[in-house]
Amino acid sequence: MSAAALPATARPAGGGRPFAGTGALYRLALRRDRVLIPLWVLGIGGLLAAGPPGLAALYSTAAERAQAAAGMSGNSSLRALYGPVLDDSLGALVVWRYGVVAAVLTAVMSLLLVVRHTRDEEESGRQEMVSSAMVGRRAPLTAALLTAVTANLAVALVATAALGGEGLRGALAHGLALGATGLLFAAAAATAAQLTESARLARGLGAALLGAAFVLRAAGDAARDDGSSPLTWLSPLGWAQNIRPFAGERWWVLALFAAATLALAALAHTLAARRDLGASFLAARPGAPEGRLGTPGALARRLQRGTLLGWTLAFAPAAVLFGSLADGAGALLEDDDSTREILIRLGGEQAITDAFLAAMTGVLGILAALYAVAAVLRLHTEETAHRAEPLLAHPVGRLRWAAGHLLIAFAGPAVLLTAAALGLALGHGRDLPALLLGCLAQLPAVWTLAAVAFTLYAFLPRAAPAGWAIATLCLLIGWVGPVLDLPAVVMDLSPFTHVPKLPGADPNWAPVAALVVVAAAVLAAGLARLRRRDLLT
């Protein structure tokens, strides 16, 4: 019997039209993200717009820029972090310094948007209700991808406007590079959402792909100073820099992005058409015949152990890479006062190699804070997915339930930073105790951000994802603040400004103790509020 002959109640949703309802879902997604998308776009655009005046103040003449470009291009440490310097114009230096950061932020934005409107919707049960109406099978995924297209188009336009004063051709190339990077990772996230059974796993898989892309680019750029390494060409982040904005643009590289993005989007649609709503291709392992998780803490550890393991496996090789690049920092800075000043702001007044290592421990500390925020927000996920309510219906108090996840959120970063110290020591070949102290000194700042994220969840549960925005703000302050020489009042907003820059410096432990007190006070306020408020329904 043909679909046309089926009774109305037996016809497929959308009347047999796979894209029916795409426009309505697309408009709904834009309405839901009417604040989130502008924040991402303006944040990335503001980062790029701040670049020209900041670097112009550091390198005020063409001769200074040429000297700095030559020195930085010849140093494998900085190439691994930022990529090769392809030209000594101000626009090229801005792209070198902020291009990788902007590309990573654009990719993260795209990953989160697509997973939010696909697998998140299925987990919450909203997609099932939507699909019962006249909505085609492929409409939700298509609407999510169109939302990502809109966001990345906005990023491309804002980035072009931000750097337009340095040359429209180069600014357009960089804007398109960012937009293309975001679209590729949006398509990758769409595929991950079909493969995995939960939004958390989809985001984790997307983050792993982004991390692998960064490591491949870093290793390739450390090996060659012109972006031509095969490892660089294996990474989408390497493709973005090989478009070469302000340095003889290669427009044909955009074809690589187009081909990869279309292939991944087609794969995502094919997988979506071959699975049931809520199902996945990477099914979870069945549990034990009888339950063995007797406490809320044991359940929290079971839920979070995979995420912690994944982050640890990412931290260790990244730290080995950073450690192996430390010795090259000194050679760069012998004749480059401006760049030496930047690195000293990042890592302290000590010897240049120690300053580089201290800067890297700071970066790893901020990344550990991102993990801590993710672990805290697992409470929000459990509550919004209505898995917390049946658990709390048993003789389990809210504080006891929250304590299991908070223990992971506060102890997990210690595991990550210990792995980072081991990696730095292995890569650099220096004493482990000094590096371990430098890494663990970041913990009070990490705990402060975790406590803030938890308290935000406790007081304003619907605004809990804003914890990511707070952590990202601290990341940006720590990453670009020293280069832009931001005022002290802005730098002090990040708790990482107040931890000692180790190894090499004489530590002042008073601010560290103050951060511990602040974290404890904020956490106590959040626990008191969680005990009294209603659960989300």
Q: How would you summarize what this structure contains?
A:
The chain is an all-alpha fold and 537 residues long.
Keyword list:
single chain; 537 residues; mainly alpha
Protein described:
With 537 residues, this protein is mainly alpha-helical. The protein has two domains: 261 residues, no CATH class; 232 residues, no CATH class. It has 26 helices and no strands. Helix 18 runs antiparallel to helix 24, helix 21 packs antiparallel against helix 23 and helix 23 packs antiparallel against helix 24.
Order of helices and strands: HHHHHHHHHHHHHHHHHHHHHHHHHH
Major beta sheet, specifics?
A: none
Low-pLDDT stretches are 1-13
* Number of helical elements: 26
CA(first)-CA(last) distance: 43 Å
SS-derived structural category: mainly alpha
C-alpha-based Rg, rounded: 24 Å
Helix content: over 70%
Strand content: under 5%
According to DSSP, the number of beta strands is 0
Number of domains: 2
- Label the overall shape: globular
What value does the average pLDDT take?
84
Q: Could you give the topology of this structure?
A:
Elements: H1 22-32, H2 36-49, H3 51-58, H4 62-73, H5 76-82, H6 90-116, H7 119-124, H8 126-131, H9 139-163, H10 168-195, H11 199-223, H12 230-233, H13 236-242, H14 253-273, H15 296-325, H16 327-333, H17 337-347, H18 352-376, H19 378-384, H20 388-392, H21 398-428, H22 432-440, H23 443-459, H24 466-484, H25 488-491, H26 510-532
Helix pairs in contact: 1-9, 2-6, 2-9, 3-6, 5-11, 6-9, 6-10, 6-11, 9-10, 10-11, 10-13, 10-14, 11-15, 13-14, 15-18, 15-21, 17-18, 17-24, 18-21, 18-22, 18-23, 18-24, 21-22, 21-23, 23-24, 23-26
